[in-house]
Amino acid sequence: MANPTDKVILFDASKCTGCRACQVACKNWNQRGYTETNNNGTFENPLQLTSQAWMRILFNEPEDRPKSDDDLYWFFTKYQCMHCTDATCVKVCPSGATKKYKLSSDEGDGYVVRTDAKQCIGCNYCVATCPFQACRYSEKDKAVDRCVMCFDRTSNAADAFPVPEQGSPDLSKAKEAVPTRNGPACVQTCTAAALTFGAREDMIAKAEARVAVLKKERAVDAQLYGVDELNGLHYIYILEDAPSKYGLPENPTVPAGVTLWQALVKPGAPWGGIALVGMAAAAGVGYVINKRNEGLEREQGGE
C-alpha cells in the first residue's frame, strides 16, 4: 500500500469547470509542443493522450441525467498516468526502463513512475497492459511518454533527473526548485481549486470531508477513487458518481498475464530461459495484430 506521506495530487471533480488550463500548463512547463487536431464535434481536445499531450480533461456527458437543451451536464475527469503503487508498467518492462524514481531526497515524499528513454526498447508492453491506458509510445522519441508529476518543480533528488552520458546528474534545476516546492504546474494553474498537491494522508482526509459534504448537499453517490485501487494511486479523485461515469475503470487490476510474465519470462525470472521463446513469440504476434488493427481503424476513420 502507498505510504501515508507520499506526495499525491487530489482532483476534486465536483469543482472542475473543464477550462483545461491544466492541459496548457502541462504542455508549457514540460515543453511538449502542439499537435494539429480537427473539430470532432466534442469539447475534448486532443481526443487521446499522446507524446505531446501527457494529460487531458475528459468531458463525460451522462445519459441518465435529465437535462434540457440549454442545460448540459458533464462529469469532468483529469486523465493521465496515475503513478500506481502496484504499477503494471514497472512489472512488465523487460529492459528496466520504466521504474519508480524518488520524488525528492526526502524518503517520505514517495516517487513518480517514469521511463528512461535511453533504456526503452519500444516493446510497448506497458502500453498494452496499463489498466488506465495512460502510456503512449512516441515514434519520434522512441520511448514511452507520460505525466511525470512535474518532478523538476518539486524535487531535489539526484535520481529524479536524467543522468547524462558522462558525468553526474545536472542538479541545477533541482536546486532552483527547492525554494518553490509548490507542486506540479497543473495544480498551480487551476483557478477552480480543483487540484491540490500534498501528503497522501492529508489529501485523503481532505477528500473524505469533501465527500461527506457532497453526500449531504447534492450527490448521494459521491465517493473517493484511488485510495485502494492498485494498492493506492498517486492521484486521488473526488467523484460525485460511479467511476464509470467519469471514464475510469471500476476495478483496475494488474492483468493475469503480467504476473505470469514476471514469474516466467521477465529477465531475472527463475524460469525465463524456458518460457521466453514461446511467450515472446506470442507477444510479438499479438503486437503485430494490434498494429494492424490500429492501421485499419485509421484508414476507416479517414486519418
Automatic annotation (TrEMBL):
Identify the residues that bind [4Fe-4S] cluster 1: 16, 19, 22, 190
* PROSITE patterns associated with the record: 4FE4S_FER_1 (PS00198), 4FE4S_FER_2 (PS51379)
Q: Which InterPro entries match?
A: 4Fe4S_Fe-S-bd (IPR017896), 4Fe4S_Fe_S_CS (IPR017900), FDH_Electron_Transfer_Unit (IPR051555), Formate_DH_Fe-S_su (IPR014603)
Q: Which residues bind [4Fe-4S] cluster 2?
A: 26, 147, 150, 186
Instruction: Kindly list the positions annotated as binding [4Fe-4S] cluster 3.
Output: 81, 84, 89, 130
Which residues make up the binding site for [4Fe-4S] cluster 4?
93, 120, 123, 126
- GO molecular function list: 4 iron, 4 sulfur cluster binding; metal ion binding
The protein's required cofactors:
[4Fe-4S] cluster
Q: Where is the 4Fe-4S ferredoxin-type domain?
A: 7-37, 72-103, 111-140
Q: Name one GO cellular component term.
A: cell envelope
Alphabetized Pfam families for the sequence: Fer4_11, Fer4_2
Supply the name of the protein.
Answer: 4Fe-4S ferredoxin-type domain-containing protein
